[in-house]
């Protein structure tokens, strides 16, 4: 379990040195006669002389309340070979799974207060100075967005000071680059809390890992029309650069 939640420097270095891109996809299968139990199956492509698919799976159980929430369990992000699986779209309950060793570790994060909304993991990363895996949570508290950071090693949850002006899209994994995590803004949640859509000048949300502070920046190109389409935009990393995609501008 120690290597699952806190990889040694040797393990991390070996993983980063040997890492090769793979294609992975998952599916969920309901177990016979067990309406709340599921088999979570991950399929990985293995690049060898002949490309083949390797399957790994774990069993998980969802309560009736979990099943009523939007979306089912799915992989949100990965860090040094460990997958972060979110049981539902807006729930702090998560599962860490190492498909190579088969180790798994469940985390149940209590809401700060009954009024907390939108409480969800939005980022999973390895802090280079603290040498530990950390998870970022974002949630609504009254008329503001707040955030907290969980140390997976100590399971200590720290509420970050101040407020988050723009919520990141928790449905997509962040792009980690140059010591920071990057997401597109969540238009829906911003409008739900403030009654208006976020401006394009604050459409990319950034979290600095060392300072543990959020900031924003504009997306490339011209401003969106009156109907924002930030959900059609995405971020990716390519050759050490942060890149931007916008499928809303594709010809129909």
From TrEMBL:
InterPro entries (UniProt xref): F-box-assoc_dom_typ1, SCF_F-box_component
Chain segments annotated as transmembrane: none
Pfam families found in the cross-reference section: FBA_1 (PF07734)
The F-box associated beta-propeller type domain, residue ranges: 44-225
Protein name: F-box associated beta-propeller type 1 domain-containing protein
Native species: Coptis chinensis
């Amino acid at each position: 379990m120690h290597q699952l939640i806190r990889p040694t420097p040797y393990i991390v270095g070996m993983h980063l040195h040997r890492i090769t891109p793979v294609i992975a996809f998952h599916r969920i299968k309901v177990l016979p006669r067990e309406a709340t139990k599921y088999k979570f199956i991950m399929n990985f492509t293995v690049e060898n002389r002949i490309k083949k698919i390797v399957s790994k799976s774990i069993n998980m159980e969802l309560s009736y309340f979990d099943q009523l929430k939007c979306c089912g369990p799915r992989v949100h992000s990965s860090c040094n070979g460990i997958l972060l699986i979110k049981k539902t779209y807006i729930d702090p309950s998560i599962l860490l799974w190492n498909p190579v060793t088969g180790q798994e570790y469940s985390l149940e994060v209590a809401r700060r207060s009954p009024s907390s909304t939108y409480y969800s993991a939005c980022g999973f990363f390895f802090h280079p100075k603290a040498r530990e895996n950390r998870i970022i949570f974002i949630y609504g508290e009254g008329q503001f967005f707040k955030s907290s950071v969980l140390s997976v090693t100590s399971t200590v949850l720290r509420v970050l000071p101040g407020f988050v002006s723009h919520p990141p899209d928790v449905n997509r994994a962040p792009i980690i680059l140059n010591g920071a995590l990057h997401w597109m803004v969540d238009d829906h949640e911003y409008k739900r809390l403030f009654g208006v859509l976020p401006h394009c000048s604050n459409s990319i949300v950034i979290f600095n890992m060392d300072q543990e502070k959020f900031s924003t920046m504009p997306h490339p190109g011209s401003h969106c029309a009156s109907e924002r389409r930030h959900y059609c935009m995405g971020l990716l990393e390519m050759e050490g650069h942060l890149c931007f995609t916008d499928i809303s501008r594709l010809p129909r």
